[in-house]
Design goal:
The complex is a heterodimer of chains A (315) and B (332). Chain A is an all-alpha fold and 315 residues long. Chain A has 13 helices and two strands, in the order ααααααββααααααα. In chain B, α4 runs antiparallel to α5, α5 packs antiparallel against α6 and α9 packs across α11. The chains are: A mainly alpha (315), B mainly alpha (332).
Chain lengths: 315, 332
């Protein structure tokens, strides 16, 4: 456990430097402050979703949330459709968060109440959420995001986007503290590592797991809000591929797929690495479909390395 | 006699047959176009690919696995078929190229999932991304369209009003049926799906069985690709986008357990038919096709929810039943 955890951050840092160096050689013009801003803007969306995904996976019980992308899309479109129907603009952020939390709560109820396998329950809701987002908008973006959101969504301090500084970073710090220093955090590790023992100890496993899925939905709702404030419109496909990318970030960040091991610092580092890689490819005019392929391949490689480590050093 | 027949067919299959009759009745009332011969033939024709992929998916779910990349695998195999058609290789060579390509991709999927010991959902999600990129690479950014009609003439022909494709689909069904009903393979699949550890202790080569299931699934996707090309004669970048969900939904609706250890091929056939009839009927009633993934997803969740509510999938309830002497027989 400690071997992997302590190595995750240095390995990710080295990989990041390699990516940046490669980009600097191939495309020197990309080495600008604006690139940093772009990377961190994209990172904010992915980081929030990955944080929720990380908690769900840490909680074990085959936990996984495949619906995150659909939740982001649906929360954003619901908020903007309501705003267009005459809802007070000030309520747009509230609706984003409420919609995200409600959709996450539904996942949690399916998993903890009906005891559906998380992968199949969230696969179902993924298609329901993302399909609904596209169907109710007819596939086109909805403009007219309240003006008061844009300065926050597009503002920067010394090149650092405001959503990253005011939302993603603090939330990761809070989540890190929560996982390490509060009973709820330790419980997540406990039942992620050994659910049976945790139940026998009296930990409210089902409640905590339900909250983890609701939290994942809330993070997706926040991500939807950031996308609105940044892009200025609700795109029904804004969450496209986020399930694959967030899973890759969480695995790359050193969280064990079976739960109970890993932390959020690695996840944030992995998010930055992934987005830097994607932005770099974009700068080199590589088609975005390659990014999906590379992210998918990375996911498999990371898990293969895990397998090899397990075979060579049986626990 | 009646009772033994009922037992052979099973509750779930009867329930599905009833649901099919009900769906057909409702849509015939709601839309005058539904009950026409041409529409029913279209529905049946649209079942081909999903049914073939469903056959493989039944095995994959039967061993307790899952594969969300099947739609893109079909797309990749379809490109192979299309390229051969373009090269004037003839219907037979092009048609066989589908299963061959599918089988090879199945080998890759099986290697990653089984040999790599990666949870199937994560591994196949990763492969989904890789295969998508491969589709892009193979297509070179442009659609494959306006393909020669060699295959279409063979598989699209109709014999006595029935599509000529039917014998091929029935043969594929019978092959898988015989393999799981009359050879030890079926028992191995169910045993491995029920409990990997116990199956291994009974001397079953669990990993070989799992490997075989994924390869067969690849073959099925490849065969589906041949039919896909025969019908549509084009391949788009987004090929097979929601096929995986539809296949998983159809198989689960058919009574195969997502946890493994229980499967029904006849149920899969009914599930595919029900799904396609629903999609066709809703379209005729005026529901835009954009809602199709939503309907499929809801149907999947509804079936799973009902199963959970009635205790079929409820692990906790099942283990509780085991402790009660009076119910232990039923649970086992």
């Amino acid at each position: 456990m400690s071997g992997r955890a302590s190595l995750t951050l240095p390995i990710l840092a080295v990989l990041w430097i390699v990516v940046v160096a490669g980009l600097a050689i191939l495309q020197p013009s990309a080495m600008a402050l604006s690139t940093l801003t772009t990377v961190l803007q994209f990172s904010t969306l992915l980081a929030l979703v990955s944080l929720g995904q990380a908690l769900v996976i840490l909680g074990g019980g085959a936990g996984i949330d495949l619906s995150v992308g659909g939740t982001v899309s649906l929360a954003a479109t619901i908020a903007m459709l309501l705003a267009r129907a005459g809802m007070a603009p000030a309520l747009v952020p509230v609706v984003c968060l409420l919609a995200g939390t409600a959709l996450g709560l539904l996942n949690g109820l399916l998993v903890t109440r009906l005891r559906l396998l998380p992968l199949i329950a969230t696969l179902g809701t993924f298609y329901v959420y993302s399909g609904t987002a596209i169907a109710i908008t007819g596939g086109s973006a909805i403009g007219g995001v309240p003006a008061f959101l844009l300065p926050w969504g597009r503002g920067t301090i010394a090149g650092f986007p405001l959503p990253f500084l005011t939302l993603a970073l603090p939330l990761f710090v809070l989540a890190g503290i929560m996982l390490q220093a509060t009973a709820w955090g330790r419980w997540i590790y406990a039942f992620g590592f050994n659910e049976r023992s945790a139940r026998l100890t009296g930990i409210p496993v089902d409640l905590a797991r339900l909250l983890a899925y609701a939290f994942s939905g809330l993070m997706a709702g926040l991500s939807a809000l950031v996308s609105l404030a940044w892009l200025g419109s609700a795109r029904p496909d804004v969450g496209h591929n986020l399930e694959l990318t967030s899973l890759t970030a969480v695995m790359l960040g050193g969280v064990a797929i079976f739960g109970g091991r890993g932390g959020v610092a690695g996840v944030l580092a992995a998010v930055l690495l992934l987005v830097t890689l994607q932005t770099g490819l974009l700068q080199l005019n590589v088609n975005t479909i390659w990014q999906v392929g590379i992210v998918g391949a990375l996911l498999i490689v990371v898990l293969l390395i895990d397998t090899i480590r397990m075979i060579r050093r049986p626990a | 006699m009646m009772r033994s027949l009922l037992r052979a067919i099973g509750e779930r299959e009867l329930l599905l047959a009833a649901a099919l009759v009900a769906a057909v009745a409702v849509f015939s009332v709601l839309s005058p176009y539904f009950m026409t011969a041409s529409n029913l033939v279209t529905v049946l024709r649209n079942c081909n690919e999903l049914f073939l992929i469903g056959l493989g998916m039944t095995l994959v779910l039967g061993i307790g696995g899952v594969d969300v990349s099947v739609g893109v695998v079909m797309g990749l195999a379809a490109i192979a078929v299309g390229r051969l058609l373009q090269a004037d290789a003839g219907a037979l060579a092009a048609g066989l190229a589908g299963p061959l390509a599918g089988g090879l991709i199945g080998l890759l999927t099986a290697s990653v999932v089984v040999l790599g010991r990666i949870p199937a959902i994560v591994a196949t999600l990763g492969l989904f991304g890789v295969y998508r990129a491969a589709v892009f690479l193979a297509l070179g950014g442009a659609w494959l369209s306006g393909l020669p009609t060699d295959l279409t003439q063979v598989l699209g022909a109709s014999v006595f009003g029935l599509p000529a494709a039917l014998p091929v689909v029935v043969l594929a069904y019978l092959l898988v049926f015989v393999a799981i009903r009359y050879t030890p393979f079926g028992l191995y699949v169910l045993a491995a799906g029920n409990s990997e550890a116990k199956a291994r202790l009974s001397g079953i080569a669990v990993r070989k069985v799992q490997f075989a299931a994924y390869v067969v699934s690849g073959l099925c996707c490849g065969l589906a690709a041949t039919f896909y090309i025969a019908t549509y004669r084009n391949v788009a970048m987004t090929v097979g986008g929601t096929l995986a969900l539809e296949a998983i939904a159809a198989v689960i609706i058919g009574g195969t357990s997502i946890l493994g250890g229980r499967m029904s091929l006849l149920g899969t056939a009914f599930g595919v038919l029900l799904l396609r009839i629903l999609q066709n009927g809703l379209l005729l009633v005026g529901v835009p096709s954009l809602w199709q993934p939503v309907v499929t997803g809801l149907l999947l969740l509804a079936v799973l929810g009902t199963e959970a509510a009635t205790g079929r999938l409820n692990l906790a309830a099942a283990s509780r039943h085991l402790r009660l002497p009076s119910r232990s027989g039923a649970a086992a």
